[in-house]
Amino acid sequence: MNAPADPFALFEQWYAEAQAQAGIAEANAVCLATSTKDGLPSARMVLMKGWDESGFLLFTNMDSRKGKELAENPHAALCFYWEELSKQVRVEGSVVPASTEESDAYFHSRPLKSRIGAWASRQSRPLESKAALIAEVAKQTARFATREVTRPPFWAGFRLVPERMEFWQKGEFRIHDRHCYTRRPEGGWEHTLLYP
Questions:
Q1: How far apart are CA 51 and CA 129, in angstroms?
Q2: Is the pLDDT of residue 178 over 90?
Q3: Band of the pLDDT at 3, cuts 50, 70, 90?
Q4: Measured between alpha carbons, how far is residue 161 from residues 54, 68, 76 in Å?
Q5: Which residue stretches of the chain are H helix?
Q6: The pLDDT of residue 174
């Protein structure tokens, strides 16, 4: 595998392959790992909603478990795994808030029912019954029947700014390719091969 000097060039190539690959329904599905201020980890699958050389963009209810963990410990990790391509990308870095404009733009691009669902769900908090959630969806649907569904104040985006990116490609007999990129303090990236 020939690796470019810039990890984003390699991510762009692999991500395009994943988007074009039959059998991969959502190439942007990624495992997001966060942790508490005490270092207790948690992980869940989410959908990345954008990326560029400034980082990877995700959105959530900021009162959710992941939102609270990101607020108290603004470091996180992502892991993309595309089994059909035998490829994986790991990203580690710090987390910064997305701009209000980015959060508004993405929220308003969502289907109407998803926007209403954002208002109805108290994400990660105990739910007495599914009926209670359905009732809250109906309440919010009626509330916004004659006006625009605005972005909730507790719903926003964040950007994971990479400090380390690792690209793994499956090889025969565990002779895999692992390329690690670490951001240099002065700018640019250091590229290192890793044992599989």
A1: 37
A2: yes
A3: confident
A4: 6, 18, 9
A5: 7-20, 65-72, 100-109, 112-120, 130-143
A6: 85
Domains observed in the chain: 7-110+152-193 (2.30.110.10)
Closest to 51 in 3D by CA, of 10, 107, 110: 10
Angle between helices 130-143 and 112-120 (to 10 degrees): 120
Q: Which phi-psi region, left, alpha or beta, contains residue 119 (left: φ > 0; alpha: ψ -120 to 50)?
A: alpha
Interatomic CA distance for residues 66 and 71, integer angstroms: 9
20-50 pLDDT, tens digit each: 998 999 999 999 999 999 999 999 999 999 9
Amino acid letter for position 48: M
From first CA to last CA, the distance across the chain in angstroms is 14
Q: Please classify residue 188 by burial: count the beta carbons closer than 10 Å to its beta carbon, then call 0-12 exposed, 13-18 middle and 19+ buried.
A: exposed
Six-digit token string for 92:
């580690």
174 is catalytic: yes
In angstroms, the CA 190 to CA 79 distance is: 20
Token duo for residue 154: 């507790």
Residue tagged active-site, from 110, 151, 159, 174 = 174
